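hey
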């Protein structure tokens, strides 16, 4: 039996937020590549996009607060859910409301 040795995709985040054309082109290829470096460096990254506030939490305590303790107070962005759902299905990061509570139990 041959051991599987998956090759992970390398994400090289842009130093600054992308402009509209670059953002769209990159999002079609791989939506995770549109996240700027600050998302990976800062415990909280906030940016206004398409008239909405987009917030990334990278601090473990804030992630728990957001995904577990106050889950009903936060709405997951539809583009993020669409990007993650093919890999995760209806999982903790993609489900909402009653579906989220079911997945969590």
């Amino acid at each position: 039996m041959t051991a599987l040795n998956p090759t992970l995709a390398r994400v090289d985040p842009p130093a600054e937020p992308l402009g509209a054309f670059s953002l769209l082109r990159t999002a079609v290829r791989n939506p995770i590549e549109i996240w700027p470096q600050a998302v990976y460096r800062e415990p909280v990254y906030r940016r206004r996009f398409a008239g909405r506030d987009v917030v990334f939490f990278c601090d473990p305590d804030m992630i728990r607060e957001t995904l577990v303790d106050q889950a009903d107070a936060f709405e997951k962005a539809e583009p993020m859910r669409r990007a993650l759902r093919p890999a995760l299905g209806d999982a903790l990061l993609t489900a909402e409301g009653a579906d989220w509570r079911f997945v969590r139990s």
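The mean pLDDT is 81. The radius of gyration is 16 Å.
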